[in-house]
Design goal:
By secondary structure, this protein is mainly beta. The chain has one domain: Jelly Rolls (Sandwich), CATH 2.60.120.200. It has one helix and 15 strands, in the order βββββββββββββαββ. The mean pLDDT is about 95. Pfam families: DUF1349.
Length: about 200
């Protein structure tokens, strides 16, 4: 799939998300019980659960930005920007029902997943941003698409894997009957984020 806002092709990964693009918006859906998570208390051999993803490979430093809306009905329902380095090396930045209010949440997986809430969202949408600057990745979120709140900075994998990272979109519904997601205001900037905490 090609989005006019992005210079790379997006390819589906995981379960079928019914991805479609119309009226400058990308839509998709997670099915019942679909999630992308490796419980931190589990075995190192436990498989990662899976959810619909749509990913492409940017070059150099970048910022992927999108406003996400999600039909948040059950705990864990979410729409997310997703970063993939390897089968057990990935991260996601979500608008998620956690457990009964919308929050910006993030997960970084290095073998097992962590899980952290950043801030509560007043409404049904939020802007999300994932950026690569050199060997580091950063997550930010915004209520207006202009002023950005720092969520976290991290790295994943080897330098070679960082340079080949895939980025894109995810839908999940780990405890529910499914979750519709919509991404608009999609933008790719060909630079990283130099100051993580000044709101830019």
């Amino acid at each position: 799939m090609r989005l006019p806002e992005l210079p790379f092709v997006l390819r589906p990964l995981g379960p079928d998300g019914g991805w479609s693009y119309a009226d400058a918006a990308l839509s998709g859906r997670a099915g019942p019980g679909q999630d992308r998570f490796v419980p931190p208390g589990g075995s190192a051999l436990d498989p990662a659960s899976d959810a619909p993803r749509l990913l492409g490979t940017p070059s150099g430093d970048f910022q992927l930005i999108a406003r996400v809306r999600a039909g948040l009905r059950a705990p864990g329902d979410a729409g997310a920007l997703y970063l993939h380095v390897g089968e057990r090396e990935w991260a996601k930045l979500c608008l998620e029902l956690s457990p009964d209010r919308p929050y910006v949440c993030s997960v970084v997986t290095r073998g097992h997943s962590d899980d952290a809430n950043a801030f509560e969202v007043d409404g049904d949408s939020v802007w999300l941003r994932v950026a690569r600057t050199g060997s580091a990745f950063a997550f930010h979120a915004s209520t207006d698409g202009t002023h950005w709140t720092f969520v976290r900075v991290f790295t994943l994998g080897t330098p070679e894997e960082v340079g080949a990272a895939q980025v894109g979109f995810l839908a999940q519904s780990p405890t529910g009957e499914g979750c519709e997601v919509l991404f608009d205001s999609v933008e790719l900037r060909g630079r990283g984020v130099r100051n993580l905490r000044d709101g830019s």
